[in-house]
Amino acid sequence: MKYASIDIGTNTVLMLIASGNDIKTFKEIMDVSTITRLGEGLKNTGYLHMPAMDRTFIVLERYLNIIKKHGVDEILCIGTSALREAKNSDVFLKRVEKYLGLKIKIISEKEEAYYTYLSVLYDKKINCDDCIIVDIGGGSTEIIRANKADFIDFVSIPIGAVKLTEIFIKHDPPLHTEIINMRRYIKENLNIVFKGDRCTFIGTGGTITNVASIKKSLITYKKGHIHGMVITHRDIDSAIEFIMPLNALERKNIPGLEIEREDIILQGIILLKEIMEYFSFNEMIVSANGVRFGVLFERLKV
Fold first, then answer.
1. What's the pTM value of the predicted model, to 2 decimals?
2. Were both Cys, which of 92, 153, 185, 279 would link to 196 (CB 3.0–4.6 Å)?
3. CA distance 216 to 256
């Protein structure tokens, strides 16, 4: 069997194509992502905007053409924060189903956290014996306490790299006061009941994979070069110090930084730094997988 797993996020649309009859026979065929910024302006208006829906629709159409060429047997498609929150999500869902024949399932915060957990649990390269997993998205951040036996607890924070940018950043590069206000806001939202003493810290999501790519100065993104690598607190501080004074145009020239992420990357990294400091973590293991993998792993468990 061949499967496609599509994750429609606030900032990015990701697609995994893989084969297998169960988790043991799982084999990744391709894994791609495209920034469409579906949640652009959502924080201020509560609605998905037509240009953002158009961009996302075009990418889904392109993905479906790729899926057809690969002879995929089953498509799994989920939507996260932006589609959960928007008052007009149904407009986009109906359009996609009518013209593309694709049904999108909007998943809950708990489901999103659980799929992130599964993406790590069944990863042969990353050990989650006793861990905290963080998935920083464009619109929300999931923090999961888990081990190999159990999905113990989670919290979903309604902030991500896109939301932080739209709420706080009005200048390019950001003003010092904007950064201070943003950090204060993040700290206020990190009211997490569980702690991470002696845990392994695992990070996933576009902010984290881009930090890893920047550290390695990758001209072309290569998942195998960053998946499982270690990022230290010093690496995070160095990235912030390097990026902070640059404007968006200058950031475009940073080796390893994904195109269209130059305006939100700093906010995402600062969010990551605050989370690491909250739990007193000095290092993090990078997972380049994420929700789309967890969705498929759950399907293969059946």
1. 0.96
2. 279
3. 7
Supply angle C-alpha 42, 43, 46, rounded to 5.
55
Place of tokens 């004074």: 245
Q: For residues 68 and 57, give the distance between their C-alpha atoms in angstroms, rounded to a whole number.
A: 17
Reported as a single tens digit per residue, the pLDDT across 120-177 is 999 999 988 899 999 999 999 999 999 999 999 999 999 999 999 999 999 999 999 9
How many other C-beta atoms are found inside a 10 Å radius of the C-beta of residue 54?
12
How many other CB atoms are found less than 10 A from the CB of residue 125? 12
Contacts with 169 (C-beta within 8 Å, 6 or more apart), sequence order: 178, 182, 263, 267
- Burial category of 246 from C-beta neighbours within 10 Å (exposed 0-12, middle 13-18, buried 19 and up): middle
Q: Tokens representing 89?
A: 């999500």
One DSSP character per residue, 236-264 reads HHHHHHHHTT--HHHHTTSTTPPTT-TTT
Domains belonging to the chain, first-starting first, are 2-109 (3.30.420.40), 126-287 (3.30.420.150)
b/e map 148-184, b = 16+ CB within 10 Å? eeebeebbbbebbbbbbbbbbbeeebbeeebbeebbe
Rounded to an integer, what distance in angstroms lies between the CA atom of residue 104 and that of residue 94? 9
3-state secondary structure at position 24: coil
Which parts of the chain fold into alpha helices (H)?
A: 42-45, 50-69, 81-85, 89-100, 109-121, 161-168, 176-189, 206-216, 223-226, 233-243, 248-251, 265-279, 291-301
